[in-house]
Amino acid sequence: MTPPVFWGLLGMALVVMGLYALIVHAHLLRKVLALNIMSSGVFLVFIGLARRAPGDGMPMAVDPVPQAMVLTGIVVAVAATGLALALIVRLRALTGRTTLGDDASD
Amino acid sequence: MAEPQDRNRDRDDDEHRAVPDRAAAPGSARARQALRPAARRLLALAMLGLFGGFAAAVLSLSHPAAGLAAAVAARIDESGVSHPVTAVLLDFRGYDTLLELVVLLLALLGTWSVGRARGCAGNAPGPLLRQLPRLLVPLIVLVAGYLLWVGAHAPGGAFQAGSLLAGVGILLCLSGQPLPRWANGLPLRLLAVLGVAVFATLGVGAAMLPGAAPLDWPPAQAKTLILTVELAAMLSIGVILAALFAGGRP
User: Fold this and answer.
1) Mutation site, B114, B163, B240, interface A, largest A CB count within 10 A
2) For A24, phi and psi rounded to 5 degrees?
């Protein structure tokens, strides 16, 4: 198993685990954490597969385009997390709840 | 205008303290787990299947694959910088980076529209935390400047430097040294939009040259333009991330 395949599979495993947690947990903070794990998995896949370029060891052997996209993605993920946390804090201040859904189930 | 807002804020804070955390109460296990055990087992099986599909997709890719490394290497001289990731970020795929700064700005506007910042020094900082910024802040600012400059030919650049600057903001906030009142108004907002404003202005300006498109830097001035954009982006990213940490409008 070459390193790109290993990191690619590991990243996919993180995506799937994050998706499972996103669906299973009702608490919004856990959902935000699950989304962050999913995005970390996607970044790992991109970074891992960027190393498939031929000529191991050379600085230019790594594809820079996926790396630049991951850099963009990290910033967007951080911004989305910040906004989501602010919305959770507001929801809790207004309703006292940290879950979504109808009131009957709460 | 300011007074009703303040009263609102106080009421919110009171509610915040008065309401018990229902999710943490005993008997509310159902609130933590949205699904019944049988449904969770089914979901776990579905996730395993999904992973199988993803794994097959990764394994079916050709190894090695050239990707775009050769295309970037062939035209890197036109970008004015020698580090390929910086060249992709600020020249070849400049729209990505410009719109990413817009996303950051929108997230900040969304956070500010949701509520006011609560202030991050809730409990009194100890003597260590009060003294730490004197040591760390100058060092962090120095490293941020170095990372910005070195990004032209080595790993580094506006995002890494900007997140270090955000660390300065968070450290000052946690150690009980918030921004002076005058800086919370227009200066903060100007710094937050600086990155998008400089990037967009220079990008449109570059299109005025004969035969050029927006964000298409002329090779002779490319390095100067990229460093200018990165400097503005670094300041904006630092201010926006620190303001997101504060969690509301100042």
Assistant:
1) B114
2) -75, -40
